[in-house]
Amino acid sequence: MASSLNDSLIGDFTIAFKSYAQPLRRKGMIAYMRNQFNFYGVSSTDRKLSIQLVAPKFLWTGVGEFLEFIECCWTEGHREFKYLALDLSRKHVRKLDASCVPFYEKLIEVESWWDTVDGIAPQIIGRLVQHDPAMIRSLSEKWIEHENFWYQRSALILQLFYKAQTDFKLLSYCINRRKESKEFFIQKAAGWALRQYSKTNPEQVKLFLAENKIPSLSYREGMKYILKEGL
Questions:
Q1: Residue 38: what are its φ and ψ, rounded to 5°?
Q2: For 167-180, how does the pLDDT look when each residue is reduced to its tens digit (9 = 90+)?
Q3: Of residues 94, 13, 4, the one with CA closest to residue 48
């Protein structure tokens, strides 16, 4: 995908986003993200409509060209472009492979917040390495030790959708490694991972929670499904 085509696509998406922009929604989105990022004010439904409008111009021409366009989206000033990058990456994830992990790994720390991190770690990188236990372990062990807590969160949610394939021993290690963290997004992620896995193996999660002292927020989140279902 040549640079001129990237520019053309960015221009088309900008026009589409502006046409769907809602001032009141924009104000709310900015406030919800604690005034850290700029928005047009486009709903997820209208963002998908924008993709449908521009899609005829978006032709798959190879992994390298695709990642160039994703990078272009990531450098745009409005948050909707990052959501667009995530939408397109999920759509084409089967055309990608583990060689793309370093590219997406770097994006975790670029204007980081839960919205992009939660889109990258479990939904893109997680899918790219799902059948490579060694890489899952390598990334998890590296990220959980990273000084940037968004990488720590990524380690906790990397296996979020693995169900029975989850390496629970590895997940347990990561949770315990950061159980002293006061960071809300770490405690919440640990609980989220436990809650998700409890849908597959509630007994193992209950045993973990009984044997390990973790933050109350993580515990409550981890027990939600178990308590709801009376397991």
A1: -95, 145
A2: 999 999 999 999 99
A3: 13
